[in-house]
UPF0033 domain-containing protein (Halobacillus mangrovi), 75 residues
Amino acid sequence: MNVTKVLDATGLACPMPIVKTKKAMKEVDSGDVLEIHATDQGAKSDLTAWAKSGGHELLQHEEENGVFKFWIQKG
């Protein structure tokens, strides 16, 4: 997967991972992939819903050592 930008939102509580993701998404072009790292438990449902409502595609997500990783392609 060709990642354009990586956002480190670890240690941030809701709603900051979404706020930071929205800002980072404005800095990439349509079709680019943003990789997000978060530790907030709510990030999984929040980012999934946000991507869908914003016309973006959640390509993949996984959890590794308490860090949730998401790959979202900008719509």
Observations:
- The mean pLDDT is 96.
- The chain has one domain: 5-73.
- The longest helix spans residues 16-26.
